[in-house]
Amino acid sequence: MTRAISNRHRLWLGIALAHLVLVTLGAAYFDIDRFGALEPAVSYYGALSGSSNSYGFFAPGIESQLHAVFEVRDARGRERLVPLESGDSAEADLRVGNIIDKFAPDSEDNISDVQLQRSLSASLARVLFMRIPDARSVNVRLEEYRPVSMNDYKKNKRGYWHPLYSARFSLNPRVARQ
Fold this sequence. Notes:
It is a single chain. The protein has five helices and four strands. It is of the alpha+beta class. Strands 2-1-3-4 form a four-stranded antiparallel β-sheet, covered by helices on one side.
């Protein structure tokens, strides 16, 4: 028993195929100016859907990524990793990421002053002291991800996190928390 394909199914199939073609062209670095009069619509769709992405994960020009690791030690001496980003607000998490990016060694507006680095990391640690009542110390580590080239990846080498900065902040247990 064969079923005829409805016009609606043909439309969705056509849309899916067009999307796959645009993804393939984006991955192949195809110049969308060749679409002529359709270029604005194709460009807009590519930006919305991500189909114009080049997917250059192993590109030589890809920049490293920074992240912060916060190790919190409680009154019992237990250590745990705690994220500073809460997930409650994308805007707040983005702001935290922007602060962390200031530690990048090749950033135009990076923090080169050691005292300023210390002050900024102390501010980040303070957030965790306020969030975790039994915290006694916070170790702030900033690390940079170092990706590998495609040739190195084929040789089973992998990217790694390289330490950039570390500072430990402690509370005096005799000081009352307010």
